[in-house]
Amino acid sequence: MADSDEARLGKEAARRLAALPGCEIAVGLSDAEFRRIEAAYGFAFSADHRAFLAQGLPLASPPKKGAAWEQPWPDWRDGDPEDLRYRLEWPVREVLRDVELGGWNARAFGARPRGLTAAVEAARRKLAQAPALVPVYGHRFLPGGSGASGHPLLSVWGTDIRCYSDDLVDWVEREFVGLDDGGPWEADPTVAVWADFIA
Questions:
Q1: Largest CB tally within 10 Å, which of 9, 25, 56, 107?
Q2: Residue 2 — pLDDT band, cuts 50, 70, 90?
């Protein structure tokens, strides 16, 4: 059976990553492991992210200056469940932290309610409508969802949310091969709610 476009995208990204020096990549995740992870953490990998991780589970890559995590790759097989939850909760938690500190994105949230508690609750309700962002590497995320694929990776740092590539293959090239020119990229954000943060 021929690969879908989504599977080819994930496999090509995995192939390009594996070709780089200094990468440690374990055996890819099995269907049973994907089912276990998704059930345990309540999300679904996108088709391209699933294909990427099925080819091989990245555990280490050449160190990057200014990395937010000592181990930027989530270890979906043997990682600490608390660490994986922390990573999965990062986008919402960090946006809400920014709101608590007075930040607000009117495009994403509408008019700011009066009072901090009301503002945080309004932001929380809006974010509850957003598709899950699944960590790929550090604070780079792909939208989850079994029917999703081909989205730009998003860099999420509080309410500073940016498209970080055109797709998963482009991200590997920019992040690790050195083609990162700082953007902006032509990719349009494609996922509800999160796209509203990106001007």
A1: 9
A2: very low
